[in-house]
Amino acid sequence: MRNFIPTLLVVIGLTQAGTTIAQSPWLGFHGGLSIPDLSGGGGNAISSNYTSRLAANFGIQADYGITQKFSIDVELNYAGQGGKRDGLQPVTNLPSQYQTLVPPGDYLYGNFKNTAAFDYLELPILARLKWGKAFKFYVNAGPYFGLLLHAEEKTRGSSYIYEDPQGNQPISPSPVDFTSNTDVTSDLHKFNFGVTGGIGISQSLGSRCLVFLDGRFEYGLLNIQKYSEDGKNNTGNVLVSLGYSRRIGR
To answer: What is the pTM of this model?
Structure first.
């Protein structure tokens, strides 16, 4: 009873302010562009110096109104994660004739393009605060949970193999083709967890439909590598998406 009375007073106050409690949910879908990156590296040459790449992001969502200005948004999204690295870098898929030439505890190097393409299924749970009339603006934030579906290292290009990271000491008599797709799913943790949040704007299309534009930042809090020798990276991306929602029920 001691906890019930303050709660009841809050509900009465919200109702008197013209706020509707437990509104009908909105169901919708969205899609857009993801700009992921791999941060960190843990001082390891094979997991450092990644930059952003482009990927897709799309999914479905349910927005459940607690009040007219506050709601809980739950989504299920496909999210492209990863990054890219171009230029001189460690070679992890050396041809067999060069594997015995690797210095102890070090790497051989090549000049090529490398894309780390990771596919995740993600579940964000966001608290959303809304305001406005003709256009509704909102901010949202919350945790997300990720499930790794597939991970691949895509390398392209040909280069001499070098003994040093500056490319001054070639040890191959001719350029080597580094074009390959390597499945690295088993080298990464299956689950990820992080925080996400951003801003958006929506426009009603009548009383039961709306379209929205959403901008969001996402950062993974867990290192994705299983093995310490592979370094330590965190996922992260910037998302821009368009969507459509429809009110369900009354």
So the answer is: 0.86
